[in-house]
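re: the backbone from monday

yeah here it is again, tokenized this time
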């Protein structure tokens, strides 16, 4: 029987095998770890912040076996090691970690959101492979995160149930994650629009009013300065039900005097058509 392994990420460069082992013992001494391997750079030998944890199988431990790894996943996931959040998922080389069909991208999350909160929010819809949010240096959430399910069906259920829902005062957007290569290949067939230079008092309803004449809108979100703030950051997102509707909005709105179409962004992190609202120029006296 194969060993049960967990893949760990988010580790500080100062975490070595000994530090990680002591952390596990502090959390629960009954968790039996057979081995820990910290992944290091071949030239500098510096930690990459990744590790593989190996646990006994059923043949080696009659009372534990695979349940040892499951217990470690439940109790160690999202705990803090030297100031960094430990993120764990089953180790499947060349398999689950590379698949995107069951992976979701979640944005407009409140600043206080933690990975454990994200996991709890999405857990009712299926078995989660991994859930994590991206953090700022001060420990607050950057406003987005990723959830990967064991199956695409569960990911679809979560997307249908949570997209556009309000979480801790913020209207979140949930969509299927696209790898950078896929985003580039599918750029000409998109249904998401990134809108910038919008007025500070613009709301989600204003965004809907501007775009809904051009197709059925799935979600429209103005990104706020903070969950409780009345003003926004000057940009937002509009998701149409169909790619043709997004293209229709692009074609129609580019003829309006208030809007012009800028060149599509080439940054790998964005795969949206970009709309820029022109700011009115002050008349010279």
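seq for it, each position gets an aa:
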């Amino acid at each position: 029987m194969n060993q049960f392994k967990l893949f760990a990420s988010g580790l500080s460069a100062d975490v070595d095998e000994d530090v990680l082992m002591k952390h596990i013992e502090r959390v629960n001494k009954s968790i039996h770890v057979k081995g820990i391997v910290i992944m290091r750079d071949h030239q500098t030998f510096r930690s990459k912040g990744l590790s593989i944890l190996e646990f006994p199988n059923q043949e080696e431990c009659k009372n534990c076996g695979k349940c040892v790894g499951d217990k470690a996943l439940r109790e160690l996931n999202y705990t803090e090691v030297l100031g960094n959040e430990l993120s764990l998922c089953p180790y499947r080389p060349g398999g689950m970690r590379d698949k995107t069909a069951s992976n979701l991208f979640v944005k407009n999350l409140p600043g206080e959101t933690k990975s454990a909160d994200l996991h709890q929010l999405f857990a009712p819809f299926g078995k989660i492979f991994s859930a994590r949010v991206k953090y700022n240096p001060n420990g607050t959430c950057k406003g987005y995160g990723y959830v990967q399910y064991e199956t695409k069906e569960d990911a679809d259920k979560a997307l249908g149930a949570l997209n556009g829902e309000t979480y801790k005062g913020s209207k979140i957007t949930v969509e299927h994650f696209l790898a950078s290569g896929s985003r580039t290949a599918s750029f000409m067939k998109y249904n998401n629009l990134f809108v910038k230079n919008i007025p500070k008092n613009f709301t989600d309803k204003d965004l809907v009013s501007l775009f809904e004449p051009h197709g059925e809108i799935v979600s429209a979100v103005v990104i706020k300065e903070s969950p409780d703030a009345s003003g926004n950051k000057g940009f937002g997102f509009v998701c149409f039900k169909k790619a043709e509707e997004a293209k229709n909005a692009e074609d129609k709105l580019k003829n309006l005097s208030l809007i012009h179409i800028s060149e599509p962004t080439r940054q790998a992190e964005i795969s949206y058509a970009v709309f820029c609202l022109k700011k009115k120029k002050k008349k010279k006296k």
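The first strand starts at residue 4 and ends at 9. The chain has seven helices and 17 strands.
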